[in-house]
Design the sequence.
């Protein structure tokens, strides 16, 4: 079982802690911005969840990744609850990785393995693109997908 708690500090600021023992300050007041907001944490969770899947899948396929970074940009509903309605992700992979293997890893993560993506799909259309960066000086090859 996973557990979490939020302890009020002041205003819209909380100390959150997970059952793993890790803690973070969360601040929903975007003007003060003393910590990530709750919805930012959700988006960060999506990035880390899917990045983990992609790294494990590519390693299993013996693809030589040197670096993996996942970016996400989300739009929110205008009226409460202001859920995510659209999310676009970009997987940037450095190394001599086969484009088809990278696209397959991203697709498997988004459609099968990433629990965060599965939850978010109930309110948001999730799209993604994969950029292979074999050498820092070369231009990326980009392929797009949609869940």
Sequence:
């Amino acid at each position: 079982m996973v557990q979490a708690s939020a302890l009020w500090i002041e205003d819209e600021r909380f100390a959150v802690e997970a059952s793993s023992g890790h803690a973070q300050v969360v601040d929903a007041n975007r003007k003060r911005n003393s910590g990530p907001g709750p919805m930012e944490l959700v988006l960060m969770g999506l990035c880390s969840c899917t990045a983990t899947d992609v790294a494990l899948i590519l390693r299993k396929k013996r693809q030589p990744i040197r670096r993996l970074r996942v970016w996400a940009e989300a739009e929110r509903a205008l009226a409460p609850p202001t859920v995510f309605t659209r999310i676009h992700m970009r997987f940037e992979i450095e190394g001599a990785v086969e484009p088809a293997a990278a696209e397959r890893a991203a697709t498997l993560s988004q459609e099968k393995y990433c629990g965060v993506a599965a939850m978010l799909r109930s309110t948001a259309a999730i799209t993604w693109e994969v950029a292979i960066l074999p050498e820092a000086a070369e231009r990326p090859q980009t392929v797009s997908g949609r869940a």
